[in-house]
């Protein structure tokens, strides 16, 4: 059961081109936003689409794959774990970030 703890799987479309950062010793970080859509019919029979936006980050080889193959609009699947962190912005206000730390990525389409 340990493999099921804190596991996230998303299939969606890249909302932006990945942001790539290279740190000392060449370690890469890729960060992007993935949009997931859910459609349903409301009480009036109208189709409603709910879009959720997810920040995802990847390191190392996974970041290199994302850098090379993922562009805005590309459909991808990611698997990883949910992480939370905080920081103080330039005005001294505390900001909170929730993101998916990607361990695997699957590319769809051409």
UniProtKB/TrEMBL annotation:
HAMAP family: SSB. GO terms for molecular function: single-stranded DNA binding. Homotetramer. InterPro entries: NA-bd_OB-fold, Primosome_PriB/ssb, ssDNA-bd. Gene3D superfamilies: Nucleic acid-binding proteins. This is Single-stranded DNA-binding protein. NCBIfam families: ssb (TIGR00621). Pfam families: SSB. The keyword DNA-binding applies. Keywords: DNA-binding. One of its GO terms (biological process) is DNA replication.
């Amino acid at each position: 059961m340990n493999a099921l703890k804190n596991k996230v799987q998303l299939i969606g479309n890249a909302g932006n081109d990945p942001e790539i950062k290279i740190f000392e010793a060449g370690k890469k970080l890729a960060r992007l936003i993935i949009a997931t859509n859910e459609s349903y019919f409301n009480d009036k029979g109208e189709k409603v689409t709910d879009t959720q936006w997810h920040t995802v980050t990847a390191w190392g080889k996974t970041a290199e794959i994302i850098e090379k193959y993922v562009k805005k609009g590309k459909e991808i699947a990611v698997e990883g774990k949910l992480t939370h962190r905080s920081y103080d912005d330039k005005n001294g206000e505390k900001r909170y970030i929730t993101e998916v730390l990607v361990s695997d990525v699957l590319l769809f389409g051409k």
